[in-house]
Each structure stands twice: as structure tokens, then as C-alpha cells.
Amino acid sequence: MAGARAIVSMVHYPVVAGVKGARVSTPLNIMIHEHTAYHVAVDVHGDRITTSIEGEEVDSFVDSTLARGGVGFFADAANRRACTGLRFPRMKTGWDGFAPS
User: Which of 23, 33, 51, 76 has the most Cβ atoms closer than 10 angstroms to its Cβ?
Assistant: First the structure.
């Protein structure tokens, strides 16, 4: 008997001056397999943020509250996830664009 299909959601919210803003959770209609690496891309053009998994767009929204900021990844307490090979190729910070894996 197969186990229940995991529900995967894209969650985003602003953090301004250390205070979380409204949380938006979008359930994704994709199949995720355990112990499998996925290519996740986040493209930011002006105030539009678009996220893709394996080249398929899964979330897009507009947020014009901040002109600049950062990005973070998290998993709920029941799941341990890892990020490796992070690249930020178009950031204009003077940083080389690579995080250690």
C-alpha cells in the first residue's frame, strides 16, 4: 500500500524590521520524491517574484513594499531539508554569487 501523497506548498511572507508580515501559502500540484534533489529557481524582475521547480513555474506574485532585501529557505519541524549549490548570479552586492554547499 502506498503512503499518503505529501502536500507541498510555496510559502512567502515579508519580514520588515524583524516582524513577519502576512503569510501566503500556495499548495503546489507537483509530485515530490524523497531523497531527490530539485532545481528551484527564484527570478526577481522589479516587484514580480516568480518561482520555478524543474523549469515549471509554480508561484508568481507582486510585492512592491520593499525595494531590496534577502531570501531564506525553511522546512517545518517534521522535515529536514538541505540546500546545496546555491547561486545568486545577478545580485549586485559585490558578493561572488555562490554559497558553500
Answer: 51
